[in-house]
Amino acid sequence: MGRLQLQAPGDVCPNPECRAAGGVLRAPEDDEELQAVLGELGNYPLADGYTEAIQASIDYVLDGARTWRFDLRSPEVHPGERASVGAKLEYEVQRVFGWQKVKPLDIALAGVPVDIKATVGKNWTIPTEAHCHLCICTQIRLEENIHRTWLIRTHTSWLYRGDGNNDGKRGIAADARDNWSVPLYNWTPIPTNPLTLLTEAQAEAVFEEGSGQEVRLLRLFEYLPEIIISRSVILTVCAGRKDPMRRARAVKDRAITRGQLVLVGKWLADREQAKERGFELGPEDWVAIPADSRTATPPDQAGNFLF
User: Fold this and answer.
1) What is the SS3 string spanning the chain?
2) Considering the chain, what percentage of its residues have pLDDT values greater than 70?
3) pLDDT at residue 22, as a whole number
4) Which residues touch 39 (CB under 8 Å, ≥6 apart)?
5) Strand pairing category for 285-290 and 112-119
6) Which of 276, 272, 247, 251 minimizes the C-alpha distance to 262?
7) Which of 76, 112, 138, 277 could pair with 149 as two cysteines, CB 3.0-4.6 Å apart?
């Protein structure tokens, strides 16, 4: 089967509702609406904002506070759940950047309708109402823990042929993305969930059935020293239990006796102390660092951590 032959800029788009001037396909540099939207997007920290939105989308799908799940690639996560990250991301992006929902598509930038698309696969599904419109398309590569976003006009003639799926949605032809899209930022890392750094034995200990919240958290901080721990990680470790954040704060004194200083981003003094040690804590972040000799006492005569 031969490679799909695409129409090129200068050709007439077969879609009678094509938004391009005169229905003529334009290269990105000649597309006035695309350039206007691109200028508007330049006002936003896109890579950082999308990273935040992707993290929030993954946390939402995993629902660790109820399920104890922390790895989207785990067999415990259904493929349909993984795919739903893309759908959730559309809403998280709007939240992060303060973009309002504007019909007929998702948002409007510089007065131009724009659709927001995301995928954890290799392509996007473009609905018929977005054909020949501008789309912001994000790809999340879970196996590499990276993401990237493009701006492209999804001309009907730049989509794969056929009737598409049951909703008439069709994917973007690879050549069209490579030749007539504008990358908005380069491949950007998605922060690693600290729980994925645990060994199998450590994970079993942290999530040991019957263990109290403080015991679990002390083990977490012991196994992951000098690693910033987010609120979502705390909630996952304490899944299904009452008032986990209060329990997390309560382990500070117990951690000192085990040679660890647990710092909480909610408290200014802790944030400043963390910064002195090279850690930038957000208001809902935690980190355990070695306590100095003035505050630490040996956990027992053998120097063992007791739980």
Assistant:
1) CCCCCCCCECEECCCCCCCCHHHECCCHHHCHHHHHHHHHHCCCCHHHHHHHHHHHHHHHHHCHHHHCCCCCCCCCCCHHHHHHHHHHHHHHHHHHHCCCCCCCCCEEECCEEEEEEEECCCCCCECHHHCCCEEEEEEEECCCCEEEEEEEECCHHHECCCCCCCCCCECECHHHHHHHEEEEEEEEECCCCHHHHCCHHHHHHHCCCCCCHHHHHHHHHHHCCCCCEEHHHHHHHCCCCCCHHHHHHHHHHHHHCCCEEEEECCCHHHHHHHHHCCCCCCCCEEEEEECCCCCCCCCCCCCCCCC
2) 90
3) 74
4) 110
5) unpaired
6) 251
7) 138
Q: Looking at the DSSP assignment, which residues form a beta bridge with residue 146?
A: 141, 189
Instruction: Tell me which of 62-71, 116-125, 146-155, 291-300 is least confident.
Output: 291-300
CA-to-CA distance for 123 and 117, rounded, in angstroms?
A: 10
- Look-up of token digits 């879609």: 15
Q: What whole-number distance in Å separates Cα of residue 58 and Cα of residue 211?
A: 27
Instruction: Quote the tokens at residue 93.
Output: 């992006």
pLDDT of residue 6: 85
**pTM metric for this prediction:** 0.85
Residue reference for tokens 């309560």: 250
Apex CA 81: angle with CA 76 and CA 205, to 5°? 30
Domains and CATH numbers, the chain: 21-189 (3.40.600.10), 194-290 (1.10.10.10)
CA proximity to 172, closest of 227, 130, 217: 130
Q: Are 255 and 261 in contact (CB under 8 A)?
A: yes
Q: Is the Cβ–Cβ distance between 258 and 247 less than 8 Å? A: no
